[in-house]
Specification:
The chain contains 14 helices and 15 strands. It is α+β, with helices and mostly antiparallel strands. Bound molecules: zinc ion (2 copies).
Length: 490
Amino acid sequence: MSEGRLPLAADGLQLNFCKTLACNNFGLSDANLYILQHSNPKRPAMVCRECGAFPPLLNNEEVLNELNRLDRYHHDGLPSCKDPQCEHVGLSVHTHKELYHAFGFSGDRQRYRCKACQGTFVDKWSGSNKKLHFQESLLGLLFTGYSVREICRKLEVNPKTFYDHIDQIASRCRRRLADIDARWINHADAYHLTSNYRVLQPHSHNGVFWFATCDAESGYVLCQHTNYSIKDTPIDMPDHDAYRPGCQFVPKSYSAENNSEVNIPTKDLKSRIDVKYQNILARSNVEDPLGNFSQFTYPATGALIRAPYTSYAHYLHILRSLNDDKRVTIFMPQDPVLRSAALSVCLPRIQSGNIDLMYVEQDEHWREGESSEMIDVVLMGWWRDRWAITHQESGASKGVCYLAGSNPNVSHWLKTASTKSIDFYQDRFQLLFEGFINEPRRKLRPAGIHPLLDIFRAWHNLCYQDKSGLTAAQRLGVTEAPMTLKCLLS
Ligand SMILES: [Zn+2]
Ligand SMILES: [Zn+2]
């Protein structure tokens, strides 16, 4: 009965349209422009009549539900109106100062009053931290690579207490970051972002992906999300059906569908890009990297969300937190799970010409600032994406594929675009917490890693100093000095 129409728009959001920028149907959500079918789940549900592209359908309502889940998580523990009937519910004091009055103190903690419902609440992290000394020792041990068991023994606590402290510290870190994020968002002239995603636990095959976006130059991380929810239960829907509620969940019965992932050759950039396109086309849903898994085990509890839903929600979360009239640039590695999401949610910005969106791929030994030879332009992949590739004397290559925007000056982008800072962040987390992430009992229980991600983001942004003694927040110009762990916790 839904043949012939697109999944319904939700709250004005309609993400189903042709995503080929050069196509006349780009950005248009009129069902007549597409061939729609969903009687055969093995065939594309939507094909563009103009260019033949087959962007996977999405349930708009479930993208918004995923966005709500990410927002709740991002603001978890921040002071906000708690009344579910109130229009300000969940909007934090840090990002929405104008909605609240400061309203005296409770002990040494700040109290606020909601301007809409007059309800009051306390900022539970505003007073002094009575567990400061203990938590500082705990973090110190954690960052030096001690296992949870060793930390519990040294500090004479049980694992439950350990995890309670980790949760509290994470909450404090989110609060600390919310202030500084807001400072950046308000003061920046433009936003130069770089995004990436990867599996969260490299040895687990549990389908949990970790999306992160940072300021491209300073490396200050704006936000990160995973497609795993401990609070949800997946419904059993073997094939994704964008017309049904709950379709964002990977069903428990999902089994790995791929036995032939082509290994990515390391030598030549162009053949690496080419093989990546083959791997992408081998997915049953080109936007879902889970389709490349040859081994998969569902997490023991909770629900796995189909990666595109998290990716779309990740970019919606970012775009809604940024200032609308400042220009946005997003660099990302070659993958439609990022491209389609960023491109679709940025449609209004593409139409008004204040965005630059591009793929960037480069060899590891590419040297920033060193000159390069002439630029080759090649059309690559099924989509015939237009890549500009250049080489340095050492043989190192770099490629840029300008996806959308009003400034397709590739020689400029070949000099400036990079995903290095987000790769550095994600590499470093996985290296520093290797033991924690890959602990056998955590393989199928990824929830314990979530608070650690927040703590690491705070440490990376505010405490960790580069060779010249500056933190990411200092390089961004939003703080004046590095923060110590102690200061982060107090
Ligand atoms: Zn098209
Ligand atoms: Zn209220």
